[in-house]
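Inputs:
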Amino acid sequence: MNALHLLKRWETVLAGLLVAEIALFGSMNPAFFAPSTLLYSTSDFIHIGITALALTLVIITGGIDLSVGSVMGLSAITLGLLWTRGVDIWIASIAALAVGALVGGLNSLAIHISKVNPLVITLGSGFLFGGTALVLSGLAGATGYEGISGFDPAFVGLANIEIVGVPLPLALFLVATIGFMALLHRTRFGRYIYLIGQNPRAAVYSGVPVFRTLTIAYALTGTMAALSGLIMASYFGSARSDFGATALMPAITAVVLGGTSIYGGSGTILGTALAALLVGYLQSGLQMVGVSSHVSSALSGALLVVVVALRSLTEMGHVYYLHRRVLKKVGSKQQ
Amino acid sequence: MIIRFLQCHREASVALIILALFAGLGLVDPTYLSVDTFLLVYGNSLILFVVAVGATMVMATHGLDVSIGSIMGLAAAIAGILMNHHYGVAVSIGAALLAGLACGLFNGVLVALLRVSAIVATLGTLGLYRGFVHLLTGGSWIEGLPEGFKALTHERYFGLSSFAWAVLVLLIVSHAFLRWTKFGRSMFAVGDNREGARLIGIRVGWVQLVAFALNGVLAAFAGVVFASQIGFIPNTAGTGMEMRAIASSVLGGVSLLGGTGTVLGAALGAFFMTSIDSVLVLLRLEAYWNDIIAGAILLIVLITDGKIRETVDSLLRYQKYRKFLDPESGSASAAGPHAGVPSDAVLTLTSSEVQK
Amino acid sequence: MTESMPAGPSVPLIEAKAIWKFFGGIPVLKGIDLTLQPGQVHALLGGNGAGKSTLMKIIAGLYRVDRGELFVRGAAMNHLSPVTSSELGIYLVPQEPLLFPSLSVEENVLMHVPGNRKELRTRLLRLIQEVGASLQLSTLAGQLEVADQQMVEILRGLIRQARILILDEPTSALTPREVGKLFERIRALTAQGVGIFFISHKLGEIRTIADTVSILRDGKIVLAGPPRSYSDAEIVHAMTQVEGKSAFEVDGVRPPPNLGREVLRVERLCGEGFADISFSLRAGEVLGLAGVVGSGRTELAETVYGIRPLARGHIFVDGEAVATSSPRHSLDHGIVYLPENRQLSGLFIDAPLVWNASSLVLYREPAWLDLAAETERFRRQIDLLGIVCSSPSQSLHTLSGGNQQKILLAKCLAAEPKVLILDEPTRGVDVAVRADIYRLIDTLAADGLAILLISSDHEEVQRLCHRVLVMDHGTTGGMLEGAAITVGSIARLAFGLTAARETAR
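Outputs:
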C-alpha cells in the first residue's frame, strides 16, 4: 500500500526520469558519467533551480513572480556597483541579498495595495527592477554586455570551491532544497502558504495572516533570486544587468514540471528541485552529445507541454471514470 | 469626474501620458515636434503594434500567450529560408503566416480543449517553437534577404512604407473587429464571464481557439516585419517580445482578467513603449533609462487603477447597505422593501404570552 | 429543425421523465417527472439544495442528464448543450446574475442575439420602458446594483423571444412595482404560447402568476398541482418536512437549558445588511437566528466574527467590550464562526483532513509544527465526532458532504470557543449526520458553551434552540422563547405571513 502510494507520487516519476536521462546520456557519451562532469555541469543552470525553489512558495500561494529574472541582474549590479565604490565584497554581497528581499517585499506590498493580479504587478516591477539594474550599470560606466568585472579573487573563486566534493553553487542548491522542504512542509509558515493557495477566502475566515505570509514568500523569492545573481557573478567573474534575462521562463518551467499547480494550492519543493535538475541535465547532456543548446531548450519546452497535457488528460479521464462508476453503481442498485 | 473618465477610457490616459512625454521633448528642443518624429516613432512601433493586437485578443478571452516571441522567430526564419531558396516574397510571407497559424492553433488546442492553463501551455511552446527555429537555421543567422523584401519597410509611399500601411490597416480592421462584430464581442464575453457566455449559447472553446490562432498569425506577421526591418534574421529574433506585448496591452487598458480593452488602447500602449526609446535618443539620454521609465509608469498606472477600482467598489458597497449604515435614513427605510408585510407582523412572542 | 417537429398544444414544451443527476457521487435529483405546456407558468418551490436550480440548469443544457429522459417539444434531448438549448429557444435567467461585468448593459442584453443591431436596440429601449426599469444602456454591468443586474438578466430572457423561459428567483431583488411589471410581461409572453418555469420563495407571487406548482424537496417532487388546491400551511409543510421520520422525532426533544453566566451581549448592532440588533447569549444556551435567506443573519454573524466592518453598536464578551476587527481578534476572545458555505469559506477542499481540522488554531501552534501531536489531536476529534475516514492525510474532497461538515465542526471546536456561531450547520448533509450534529449541539450546550444557531430549517430551530430571534429585512422581526418556538410560529414570522392575525385567532 505504502510502496504503491510512493510509486504514484509525481516526485518518484521525476526521479525515475532523471535517472533514465543520466543513464541515456551516459551511454551515449561515457564522459557524462564522470563525477566531475555531473557535478560541475550543474553550475550552468543551478541558479535557475535556486530561484525556482523559492518561486515554488509564491506559486503555491496562487501568485507568481515574473520579476525574478530582473532581480538576478539587479543583485549582481548592486554588488558590482558597491564593489567599484570600494565597499568590501562580503558586505556588498549581503547588501545585494538585502536588495533582493526588499524588492520582493515591494512586490507583495504593491499587490496588496492595488489588489491587482500578481502576474501584472510583477510584470511591471520586472521592467522596473531590470531597468534599475540597467541604469545602475550605466551609471557605473559599465558597457551593456561587458558588465562590471575585476572582483576580489576570493569572491570569484567561490563558484569553484568544493564542499565535501560538491561545488559550492550545487551545495547551496542542496542546502536550500532541504531548507525550503523543512520550511514548506514542517513549519506553520509553510502550512499558511498551502492554505492561502487552496482557498484564500477560507484562509481569511480561519484567521491566517495572509498579507504577512505573502510578503515573506515574495521577499524570500527576491532573496533567492539575488543569491542566484551573486552565484552567477562569481561563476562568470563579472556582473551584468541582463544576467537573469533568460532565467525566468526555465524557473517557472521547473516549478510547474515539478508538479506545482499554476493555480496554487499544491506542489512540493522536492518536485521543483528534481525538475530543475531534470531540465538542467537535459540541456547539458544534449550539449555533450553534440546537440545545440537551443534544440535542447526546445526539448525541455516539449517536455513541459507533453507533461502538462498528459496530466490534464489523465485528470479529465479520471473525473469521467468516477462519474461512470457512480452511474453504474446506481444503475445496478435500481434493478 | 476626470478620474472617472480616465478610468473608463484608459486610451485617454495613455494618450495623455504620451502627450506629456512629447511635451517634455518639445521643451528641450521644439524642432523635434514634427511629423517626421511622429512617423519615426510609428515606424519603430510596427512590430509591437502587431503583437499587441494579438495579445489584446488573447487577453480579452482571459488567456495569455508568452510564446509569441518564438512564433515571431519561427515565422521570420521560415520566410527567410524560403526567400533565400528563391521562392517569391509573397509565397514566403504566406508560408510564414501559415506557420504562425499552426503554432497559434496548437496553443489554442492546449488551452481550449485540453484545459491546460494558458501561461503553462505557452511557456512550453515558447521553448518548443524556439527550438524549431534552431533546427531550421542550424543555429546560424539568415542573411542576404532579397532587396525586394527589405524594401517593404524601406521604400515609402505617401510617407509610409508598405508594411507601415499594412499595420495601419490591421489596426483599424482589428479595432473594428473587436469593437463591433459579433464574434469580436463574444471574445470579450468569454473572458469576462466564461459561465455566462456558455449560458447564452456562445461556443466558448471555439472562441478561445480562434483567439489563439489569430494571435499566432499576428505574431508571425510581426516576425516578417522584423526580418524586413533589420534585413537579416538572428536566432534570437523576437525574444522577450511577449513581455513587451503584454505590458503594452495592460498599459492601454486591456485586463489580464479578460473582458476589457480595445485595440486602440493597446496600440497607444505600444506607441508609448516605443516612444520612450525614441524620445530618450532625441533627448540624448542613454537608452538604458527606457525600461525603468516604462516599468515605473506601468506600475503607477496599475496601482492607481487598482486603488480607483477599490474606491468605486467600496462606494457601491456603501450604497448597497446605506439604509443600514446611515443613521438618518436607517430607521425610515429599513422597513422599506417589504412594504407588503403589515407592521403588526413584527412582534415578540414569549412563552408566557402564548400560554395565556 | 423547429418546423419538422410535431407542434401543437398537445405537445408539451418540456417533458422530463425520471431524471437523475449526481454531483461527486451524491444524487441531487432523484427521478424527477415534470412537464411544461405552452402558455403555462410552472412554478417550482423548495428549500435550498432541494434541486430546483440543478433541474433548470439541465433544461438549459448547462448540466447533462445522468439518467432518465428529457424531451424538448417532443424530441428526445438528453444531450443538450447550451448552444443547442439556446437554438431550441430555451433561455435561463439564473438566480445569481451571470452578467459580463466589464461590458455595457446594452451589450450584456444583446450579446449573441441574432438580428440587426439597430432594431434590437430599439426593441430593448421599448422593453426597458415596458418593464418599468431605469437603466442606462451604456452603464457597465459590474457597476449596477444587484436589483438592476437582475433586471438586466430578465431583459436578456425577454428580448430573446425564447419559447421556453426559465426564471430562477427573478424577483428576489425587485421592488413590488417592478414585480408587477414583470408579471405583466410574463402574462403577455404566455399569451403568445411561451412556457415559463418560475422559481420563487414567495408564496404570494406563486399564487398570483403560476398555473401549476411543483414542490421539490431533497431531489424529489413531493407535491404538484395548481397552487390554489393547497393551503399555505400544506405548502410550507411539504417544503420543510425532513425526509422520512423528522429529525425532531429521531432525536427526541431539546434538553432544558442549563443556563450559566452571560457570555455574549450585543447592543444595537448596525452593519452591512442589518440594523439595531440587540441580544444576549448565556453559557449553555442555544439561541436561534431565523429568517429568510437575505434577511441579514449571515451578515450579522460575519460582523460579530470580524469579517465585515461594524458600523455602530457594541459587542461584549464576558462583560468586556471587544472591538471585532479581524477573525484573529475574535478567535482570541473565544468567538468562533462556522461559515454557511463550507466549500467557499470554510474548508480547504484539496488539503488533507488534518490540515483542515487544525487550520483555525494554527496561529496558536509553535512555528515548528508538531505533526505527531497534530495528528494525535485529530484522531481524538475523529472519535469524538464520529468522522468516517480512512486516513488523516486523505484529502477532504474524498469525504461525503456530511463528513466534510463534521470536519468543519472539528475545526471550529479545536479553537475551544466560548461562543460558537453555527451558520446552517446541517445544510446538505444526510439524516444520520444531521442527527449526530444535533446530539453534538445538545452536548456542547450542556457543557456550558454559548451557541448562536443560524438556520433556515425551522424544524431544526425548534429542535435545538432555547430562544429564537427571527430577523426580517435586517431588523428584529420577533423573538420566540421556550414553548412558543414551533415550526409554525417561526415559519409564519420568517415567510412574512400575517402571523399576528393567526395567533390572535
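Remarks. Residues 22 and 33 of chain B are 7 Å apart (CA to CA). The first strand of chain B starts at residue 156 and ends at 157.
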